[in-house]
Amino acid sequence: MDALELLVARDEIRILVSRYAVAVDARDLDTLVALFVADVRVGGDAVGSDALRASFEASLSAIGVSVLHVGTHVIDVVDHDHATGVQYTSGQVEDGGRWIHQSIVYRDAYERRDGRWLFVRRVHELFHGVEAWQHPLDQEPADWPHRPDGRGTAPASFPTWTTFWHERGGESRA
Q: What backbone torsions phi and psi does residue 152 show, to the nearest 5 degrees?
């Protein structure tokens, strides 16, 4: 690959990773599943988009609000259609009545299919998770610029967030 092709590939992969974080936080399962190859391996023996969707649905239904901040990202482009990466994420996750801060590393394999970079594999590992001393959703609503601290309007402002919880017969406190 020439230098320009390499830069474009890395940029497209970085955008892929950012779209993953936003889709997780918005509970946008359609977008999330579309970021992976159609024949993705899920767990030890399941394959395909339906299995991936079910896996994401189960894991994301088990938590409340999440906020993923994409950080360090090393991408090794193997050839025109294959790459690997290591990507750090700082996560905040609502777990029942607790608010957890996490440091996460993803070990990724990417493949370009039909001109689009997609995840072939995304392995989630935890450096650590620690409970916060205060749950941020227990605050009064913020009122910018008069009151810059407090609970905000996201993620409930994402239409997919509301749909995700409505389809499961519940409501999020977001």
A: -100, -165
